[in-house]
Amino acid sequence: MRLYVNVKRPAQKRDFMIYGHFIEHFHRQIYGGVYDPGNPLSDEDGLREDVLDAMRKIRVPILRWPGGCFVSSYHWKDAVGENRIPMFDKAWRVEDPNTFGTDEYIKLCRKIGCEPYICTNAGTGSAEEMSDWVEYCNLETEGQYAKQRIRNGFEKPYKVKYWSVGNENYGAWEIGAKSADEWGRLVTEAAKMIKHVDPCTELSAAALADLDWNVNLLKHSGQFLDWISIHGYWDAIHQTNDYADYDACMVYTNSITDSVRKVRGLLEAMGLGRIRIAFDEWNLRGWYHPNVHTVKQGITREEYLYPRDKNDDNTKYTMADAVFTACFLNMCNRNCDIIGMANYAPIVNTRGCIFTYKDGIVLRSTYHVFDLYVNYLGDEVLESWSEENPVCALKSISDTLESVEMIDIVATSFSDGSGYALAAVNKDSDKAHEFELHMDAAGEVAIHFISGDSTESYNDIGCSRVEIMHELLGQYHPGMKFMLRPHSVNIIQIRADRKSI
Ligand code: AHR
User: Fold this and answer.
1) pLDDT number for residue 498
2) Nearest residue by C-alpha to atom 5 in ligand 1
3) Which residue pairs, CB below 8 angstroms and at least 24 apart, start in 259-266?
4) How far is the CA of 146 from the centre of ligand 1 (A)?
5) Which of 22, 270, 316, 415 is deepest in the core (most CB within 10 A)?
6) Which of 216, 206, 208 has its CA nearest to residue 175?
7) What does R_g of the chain's alpha carbons equal in angstroms?
8) How far apart are CA 238 and CA 392, in angstroms?
9) Which ligand 1 atom sits closest to the C-alpha of 91?
10) How far is the CA of 238 from the centre of ligand 1 (A)?
11) Is residue 501 pLDDT above 70, yes or no?
12) Which H or E run contains 265?
């Protein structure tokens, strides 16, 4: 394969928020995950310091919270101040003690240095309740909610910039689901009130790659929106936990851009090109929560509650997850003119990249993909094209044979002028692939990569089979050949200054 990179064409700066994350009040993401008061590994605020350190290392730029389906019957006022009111979470059918609320969430964001991004309750909630939340977070002293924040010990406003109205309110599974027409009206009212409270907020609303839903939403509310939220889970195993195998996961990469393409076309057609996409929930794997997210509700806890523990099986998060995650991040970089934010769902436990247990954490294979992209790849995306990309026929989840290109590469430059970096993914389960690089550049070449010893490599307590490796490859010259290991994610840097490699 030959790759051509046009370093003369102006590069497109990507928004760092494409490396964002999501955390929900589901299973052990919050309680027993990042928030674990009483654990000796936790700080004075009950936050796990080992988790905070891991989140800092991948430079989490933005963290969406508190849901997800959870939020559609969540009332934020029950979770601030001295007297927290435990709620029965009707989405996930468990009690939430409400001891982790807005103030604890803001502390978490401040400690990891990320932007907060709050998703509001557009299920059972009202436009007023949503805008009251903005008052609580963002007003100096005006009104009862800012005064309540001050009484709770938080003098200064939090200035939460990013807000979204609702979560998947289009879905029958969502509490307080809405029709397209109802949705457009509610978002408009919520947007008016939120923007009246704080016009500096940036607002998104739940959407999907569906024409009717989005046309209604944008006709009613387009003038108020800065973002449009979409979600994607490709291996939809919420009810079965029957993981797609490696090749089927590679077939999923063929559809990784579909929803972005559709939403892009709609926004352009409606003259709303200033609205950007927040892909604010995505993961190869759907979360396993049988008999709760469907009309068929489990009767016993064995049917609907205890099976959630199976999300904690670290052996299931392999190079398939890592390679898919890298292809998704490549897609975000390629479409960085319209994708301004993406949130890996979730960051801690469930299908997340950081797994917690009482005495420590496991950095799953996907964690190292984020480490590679945020710490080794450039911040400007260059025009590139390839010739003779190797293609394989792979079996999809439905046993059809699909053609899949084996190599996925994005070329970037560093805006500080220190050089270039390629994110090069080899999806092939057993073959290494070589490519020839044609770009006008100079400097020392280094490759930073993960591959594991097989497609099934994973990390778990006491075993680490997927770690970032580094190699120096000498001086770059045009036409230089690079070998990509099977099932590998590689960042190839060409840096003028060797120290920065
Ligand atoms: O499976 C988890 C759920 O997926 C999230 O709560 C929701 O937003 C999406 O449907």
Assistant:
1) 57
2) 68
3) 259/208, 259/209, 259/230, 259/232, 260/230, 260/331, 260/335, 260/338, 260/339, 262/209, 262/211, 263/207, 263/209, 263/214, 263/228, 263/230, 263/338, 264/335, 264/338, 266/211, 266/214, 266/215, 266/218
4) 31
5) 22
6) 206
7) 23
8) 29
9) 6
10) 9
11) no
12) helix 258-269
- Which of 175, 233, 304 has most ligand 1 atoms within 8 Å of its beta carbon, as the pocket-test mutant? 233
| Number of residues assigned to the chain | 501
State which amino acid sits at residue 408. Answer: D
Q: Answer yes or no: is pLDDT of 218 > 90.
A: yes
Domains of the chain: 2-9+380-495 (2.60.40.1180), 14-376 (3.20.20.80)
pLDDT in tens, 83-134: 999 999 999 999 999 999 999 999 999 999 999 999 999 999 999 999 999 9
Torsion of Cα atoms, 120 then 124 then 130 then 133, to 10°: -80
pLDDT for residue 475: 97
Chain mean position to CA 295: 27
Using alpha carbons, select from 371, 411, 405 the residue that is nearest to residue 391. Answer: 405
Q: Kindly give the distance from the C-alpha atom of residue 229 to the centroid of ligand 1, in angstroms, as a whole number.
A: 13
Q: How far apart are CA 57 and CA 79, in angstroms?
A: 29
Give residue 456's identity as a one-letter amino acid code: E
- How does pLDDT run across 412-430, given as a tens digit for each residue? 999 999 999 999 999 999 9
Beta-bridge mates of residue 363: 354
pTM value is: 0.98
Mapping DSSP to helix (H, G, I), strand (E, B) and coil, where does residue 41 land?
coil
| Token pair for 65 | 């919270």
Q: What pLDDT is stored for residue 294 in this prediction? A: 66
Structure token digits, residue 494 = 């060409």
Q: Residues 446-484, buried b or exposed e (16+ Cβ, 10 A)?
A: bbbbbbbeebbbbbeeeeebbeeeeeeeeebeeebebeb
The residue among 153, 178, 151 whose CA lies nearest residue 167 is 178
pLDDT at 311 over 70: yes
Out of 21, 168, 294, mutate this one to test ligand 1's pocket (max ligand atoms within 8 Å of CB): namely: 168
